[in-house]
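agent> Task received from the user: take the single chain below, predict its 3D structure, and emit structure tokens. No templates, no multimer pairing.
agent> Plan: (1) validate residues, (2) run structure prediction, (3) serialize to tokens, (4) report one or two observations.
agent> Step 1 OK, no nonstandard residues flagged.
tool_call: predict_structure(input=
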Amino acid sequence: MIARVQGMLATKHVDRVVVDVHGVGYQVFVPLSTYYTLPDPEAPVTLLTTTYVREDTLRLYGFATQQEQALFELLLGVSSIGPRLALNMLSNLAAADLQQAIAGADIARLQRIPGIGRKTAERVILELKDKVSLLELPIPAPAESAVRADEQLVGDVISALLNLGYKRTEAEKAVQIIRARQDEAPALETLLKEALQLLARSR
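)
tool_result: status=success, residues=203
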């Protein structure tokens, strides 16, 4: 079991990174909350990791904090919740907000996450309500990032939204609305957060 990966950040995308550890590249899948904290490529990085093994699958999932990792592992214990959906939940809601939604039995808030229907939301609350109450989950501060070229920025944000389960038409519309409100190209994280908030309100 690989519990931590420490090395040089080779590449990063909104849903995964590659960490170079003494010449070996480890692909690690991450939630947006962790992505926001990542440095630029070629900088040192440390990620806490959960190793996910099945008959034909071996993947690493990485986190900036123990709290995010603990919540991810709790979600994996819920029937019908796999690692991709658990990561998606952490990407759509900050860990502290997700904890609050589960502990407060906020079914409506959970249902706004793509891939989470009423039955799944009810199951998550039933199985985790007491457990998440024991976790201390501070809201992580988003990291600053350099401003990207506008076309690349829009493409990256749309790609991230597609990975989170949104349809291309609604992703493109949300990004267009947010960009129309801004005079200058924002950081990717800012545009992505605002697009997610807009999509959540429209559901």
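agent> Step 4: summary for the user.
The domain at 150-202 is CATH 1.10.8.10 (Helicase, Ruva Protein; domain 3).
agent> Done.
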